Amino acid sequence: MRITPSRGVLVAAAVVVGALVAPVVTALPATADQTTQYPSWQDVQRAKGDEQAAAAEATKVQSALRSVQADAAAKSQAALDASAVADRAEADLASAAQAATSLQAQSAGAQRTASRAQERAGQLAATLYRDGSGNAMTTRIATADDPDQLLYQLGAMDQLSTTWEGVLDDASVASRTASSLHDQAERAEHERDSLARAAEQRSTAARAASDSAAQAVADTQQHSDELYAQLAELKDTTAQTEQRYELGVQVAAQKAAQQRARERAAAAAAAAAAAPAPTTSAPVPTSGGSGTSYPSTGGVTVDPAGAQAYARSAIGAYGWGVDQFSCLVSLWNQESGWRANALNASSGAYGIPQSLPASKMAVAGADWRTNAATQVNWGLADIHDAYGSPCAAWNHEMSENPHWY
């Protein structure tokens, strides 16, 4: 399936560096359409001849872009979170079902063992009481005339008694084991039933979140197409130029925000340790590929070959050649296998470039959760701003243990 380039680009720096949104059970903000006043083409045409008015109108357009993108970004993150929760619930259910099945089998086996032990104990008890002629063993011993016969019968009775006691102990242990396993199996079945209900609820929530995100993304792209066209009209450029420019600006803003966060963290650590702050601080990873899973994120088309083809067509805009593309292939093979739904469950890094947090990719388009091309666009801009080239990013990746760039 051909991957189409993403269209909408998020402008708001606040959304750019925002943390992961609350789980799907948290109320989401009102949609942009309920609060945003979109500039009209008449406003744009009136402002175009006046430099000051054009600048003011461009600010209004950018503000509208921030608003229209924010809602889609939040709902996409909610959909991603809900999908991850649903996948964990399914995994828990599968584990519980396997445990319940195993305990049921063990319980049935233990019950059969207990039944056999009890049957054998009963048979030996009957043997102790009666001999082959049907007479009571104790009566025959008491009336025996031959001393040798008496000694023999006493020895036989002693052996039978010892064997019967052992069998009785075995039957008692088997019965307790069967009872314990039966109780465990019942508890496991209850746990499985509870987890099945939870998994169904999580799955329903994930589908609802995915549907909500898809609608928000569609609305956002419709508005952002027009808003970027208006910006291009005001600045005498093209919509594509405005998108690329804003992407570069906002990725740079992300890096600046990360640098400030590093500096604050270093200062806090230094203060806590009552030691001078270090002159340099270790960079905070913006991506991560270890512990990657592949959640069932609704709407995502996983097409590594298509994603690579799109990336090959896009790197020329940065002046990179085939040598850089080979490094990029290695880099994102390491990070995600070029899968658009790659998720690091422990860190939250997501997508082909393993954006951390995932929502940073919203600056490249509202459809960052599902569109591989949008993820690639963000990843290329991020590499350009942070390392200058894919090969530099790949060298950094290989120099770190565990690997990250």
From TrEMBL:
Residues 196-221 have a biased composition (Low complexity). SUPFAM superfamilies: Lysozyme-like. Residues 178-221, 273-295 are annotated as: Disordered. InterPro entries: Lysozyme-like_dom_sf. It comes from Curtobacterium caseinilyticum. This is Lytic transglycosylase domain-containing protein. Residues 1-27 form the signal peptide. Keywords: Signal. Residues 183-195 have a biased composition (Basic and acidic residues).
